[in-house]
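for the recovery benchmark. tokens below, seq after
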């Protein structure tokens, strides 16, 4: 980390699917402090995934204190704090007591599959795509919220009275950070709101038709704000008086952190899931190839910018599964050295559709498949197949994105925890036949939240300041022949086909 000098800095809370991190950045985007804690993944039934909101809030406070203490920093050193969060994860809490009414339903949770089918039965999965940019899927927040309202005792009654508050994790943290039951601010930003399936992309407001269709009372919803403005002051002792001034869903934050601020810029984040976003400018682009149309960011009172997105449910989560469930590696970092013990995948393909398939397939009936096993296959081949699965899924999304946008990518900017894996990055470049570029600061999700907060408070004056900060750390160029690339991708598509139709 960079030594702390005199001056002011910007903090960022990065609340992800598996962990919470607090980071402090300087004016050139350099990291001055960082602390991180994992939280539990709760699986009540197959396909159900929950988080304990209190655990996340406790971890958030702890990582803030730890990072600041280790760097010798305090609230006086920070001009602002931004928040970025796992999107779609749905939470309902009591405004009076501050207690969650249920565990948070994580974006990966599939318990509302029946409700998806019922809503789609008349008009198909694209019933609300015109207004929301999203297909009907278990992924988004609206049906999760409806489920909580129906299942939690007196949940709907409390929500209608304004005493039960809905939020994605950014709203939960913002409310607690600004005072909770003592005047906490109930707000979300346009990027997170765009993932609920309750906001109209054109008006950037909660939509009465959508609220009625999903059975959600307006009284429980947060105010929708821009991604870069002062929402309130922090009441935590460690951050007392510091403005909270940035709020972005994690993938939009990574887009900003990668300074993909021009139309046609694209990035891919390799985290728990895998998320490829392309900036489409001030006009939303409707997808005909199974992608999502979403808000990319809105800085203050400027016009919003939109993005096309392809979401892969399982990327780094597959490595964690190999570690925690199969025990073939002791730590996530071991996956690369194990995969390097073999020269290729041994014709083994791993389709990790644990929660169905997201973009561009949108098949909730799919489940995980390991195809091509023979007696020759070893745990090293399985490790390599698991890494390659992320690259194959990225190509699926990229081909759809090029078709929708009419733009062929010549370079892919990459970030997230998996980009330290050089075997994966080289295979990604080979499979896409385009260059893959890793920036010097790979934690671009937190950096994007810091950028949003810093822009709102004048720490950075313009987008040009952000673009000037972006620097290349490593570039991978394709080195695979066209025939081998075609063979591998054809075999992947065969394996993918075999994962479909498992759930009746």
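predicted aa per position
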């Amino acid at each position: 980390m960079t030594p702390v000098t005199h001056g002011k800095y910007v903090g960022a809370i990065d609340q992800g699917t598996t962990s919470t991190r607090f980071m402090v950045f300087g004016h050139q985007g350099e990291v001055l402090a960082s602390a991180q804690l994992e939280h539990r993944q709760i699986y009540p039934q197959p396909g159900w995934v929950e988080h304990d909101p209190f655990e996340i809030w406790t971890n958030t406070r702890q990582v803030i204190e730890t990072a600041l203490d280790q760097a010798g920093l305090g609230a006086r050193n920070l001009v602002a704090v931004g928040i970025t969060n796992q999107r779609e994860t749905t939470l309902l809490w009591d405004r009076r007591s501050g207690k969650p009414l249920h565990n948070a339903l994580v974006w990966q949770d599939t318990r509302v599959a029946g409700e998806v089918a019922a809503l789609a039965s008349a008009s198909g999965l694209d019933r609300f795509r015109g207004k929301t940019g999203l297909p009907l899927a278990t992924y988004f927040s609206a049906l999760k919220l409806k489920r909580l309202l129906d299942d939690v005792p007196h949940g709907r009654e409390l929500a209608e009275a304004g005493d039960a508050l809905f939020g994605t994790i950014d709203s939960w943290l913002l409310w607690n950070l600004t005072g909770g039951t003592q005047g906490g601010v109930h707000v979300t930003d346009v990027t997170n709101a765009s993932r609920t399936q309750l906001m109209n992309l054109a008006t950037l407001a909660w939509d009465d038709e959508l609220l009625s269709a999903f059975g959600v009372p307006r009284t429980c919803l947060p105010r929708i704000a821009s991604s870069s403005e002062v929402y309130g002051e922090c009441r935590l002792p460690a951050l007392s008086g510091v403005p909270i001034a940035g709020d972005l869903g994690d993938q939009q934050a990574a887009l900003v952190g990668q300074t993909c601020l021009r139309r046609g810029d694209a990035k891919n984040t390799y985290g728990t899931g895998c998320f490829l976003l392309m900036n489409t400018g001030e006009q939303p682009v409707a997808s005909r190839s199974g992608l999502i149309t979403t808000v990319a960011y809105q800085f203050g009172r400027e016009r919003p910018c939109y993005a096309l997105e392809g979401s892969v449910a399982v990327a780094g989560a597959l490595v964690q599964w190999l570690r925690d469930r199969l025990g073939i590696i002791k730590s996530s970092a071991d996956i690369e050295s194990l995969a390097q013990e073999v020269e290729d995948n041994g014709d083994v393909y791993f389709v990790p559709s644990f929660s169905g398939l997201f973009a561009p397939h949108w098949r909730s009936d799919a489940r995980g498949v390991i195809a091509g096993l023979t007696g020759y296959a070893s745990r090293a081949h399985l490790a390599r197949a698991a890494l390659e699965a992320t690259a194959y899924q990225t190509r699926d999304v990229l081909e759809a994105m090029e078709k929708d946008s009419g733009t062929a990518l010549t370079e892919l900017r990459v970030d997230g925890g998996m980009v330290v894996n050089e075997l994966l990055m080289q295979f990604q470049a080979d499979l896409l036949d385009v260059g893959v570029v890793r920036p010097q600061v790979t934690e671009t999700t937190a950096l994007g939240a810091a950028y949003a907060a810093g822009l709102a408070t004048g720490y950075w004056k313009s987008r040009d300041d952000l673009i000037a900060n972006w620097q290349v750390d490593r570039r991978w160029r394709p080195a695979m022949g066209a025939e081998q690339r075609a063979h591998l991708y054809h075999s992947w598509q065969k394996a993918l086909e075999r994962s479909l139709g498992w759930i009746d």
